[in-house]
Amino acid sequence: MYKRQGILDKNDLDSDNDGIYDIVEGGDGAADLNNDGRIDLNDVGFIDADNNGVDDNSELTSEPDNDSDNTKDFLDLDSDGDGCNDVIEAGYTDNNSDGILGPITPTFDVNGKVTSGTDGYTLPLDIDANSIYDFTENGPNQVSSEITTACVSYFWNGTTYNTSGSYTFSSTNITGCDSMATLNLTINSPKIGDTTALVCDSLQWYGVWYNSTGAYTHILTATNGCDSIVTLNLDVNDYIVPTITCPTSQADFFNASCSFSLLDYTALAVVSDNCNYPLTVTQLPSIGSTVNSNTAITLTVTDNYNNSSTCLFNLTLTDTLSLIHI
C-alpha cells in the first residue's frame, strides 16, 4: 500500500490512493451528495448534534473489512480479496497495475486525492446492478460489449457464430481481473437470385457479353451489406420455327413440248423469324425442274438452327398452241 507523509488518514480523502473516496470505502458514500469526498454542511441531511465536525450518522457506521484480512477497505487495495485491485474493479485507470490510481509516480493535492490520474473519484462500478460495488464482491470486474453485423458467420474469441444473438465470453485480463465481454451479433444471409435467358446468339449481362450456353455468376453487394450472388442460366439456341407465307396460286403456259420448266418462286414467299439470322428458302420441285401438268409447289424456310416451316401453292399451266391437222 502506498503511504504518503504529511497527511493523516483522518484528513486524507483517499488513504490508499486507489481513486475511491474513503467515505465510499467506509460505507457512507451515499451521504456525500455533492461527491467531494466529505459529508458536511454542503450535503443535505448532514447532522452534527455534538458539534464535532463529523456527521452523526457516519459515526454510527463501522468501517468494513470485506475480505476479513484485518485491513479496513479504505486502506486495502483489494477490498474483496479476489486478486483484482479496487482501482480496476471501480472502473478507473491504473497504468502500471500497482493498485494506485494513475501512473507509477502519483501526485496528490492537499486533501490526499491523486491528481495525476485520468479518472477516479466517480461512482464505482456495479456491473451486475445488485447495489454492491464490484470492488467489495467477487465476480466479473470488467465488462465490455460490442455490436457487430456480419455476413454468414462471425469469428469471436475462438468461436464461430452463424446465428444472430447475444453471446458472452469470460476471461482474465492483463491486470489479472475477471472480464466479461458481450457480443450482440446480427448475422445477415447473402441474397441469391437466378435469371434464365434464351437468346439466339449473345447476351450482355452486367457489362459482359456471353455467347455460349452455360451458367454464369456475378457478385453484387446487397442492401444488407452481404455479397449477393446472382446466376445467369443462359441458353444460346433457337427453338422457334420461322414463318412463311406462300404466294397465291400461279398461272403459266406450256411450251412447245407441252412441258414447263419451273421458275424460281422463292422470292415470292414472305418469311420472318425471331432471330436476326438470314433465312434460307428452298423450293420443291426444284427450280428448273420440268413438269407436264398442273403442279403443287412447296416452299420451305429454314433458320440458322435448322428450324423450318413450309407452305404450298398451286401452279396452273395452260396450253396455248393450236392443234395441227395432217
Describe this structure in words.
- With 326 residues, the protein is mainly beta.
- It has 4 domains: 1-27 and 63-138, no CATH class; 142-188, no CATH class; 192-236, no CATH class; 243-318, Immunoglobulin-like (Sandwich).
- The protein is 4% helix and 32% strand.
- It contains 3 helices and 18 strands.
- The strands form 7 sheets. It has a 4-stranded mixed beta sheet, with no helix packed on it. It has a 3-stranded mixed beta sheet with strand order 1-5-4, with no helix packed on it. The chain has a 3-stranded mixed beta sheet with strand order 6-10-9, with no helix packed on it.
- The termini are far apart.
- The model has no long low-confidence stretch (mean pLDDT 88).
The N- to C-terminal Cα distance equals 154 Å
Q: How many separate domains?
A: 4
Spatial shape = rod-shaped
Question: What is the tally of helical segments?
Answer: 3
| Amount of helix | under 10%
Number of strands: 18
Rounded radius of gyration (Å) = 49 Å
Assembly status? single chain
Across the major sheet, the strand order is 12-18-17-15
- How many strands, what sense, and barrel or not for the largest sheet? 4 strands, mixed
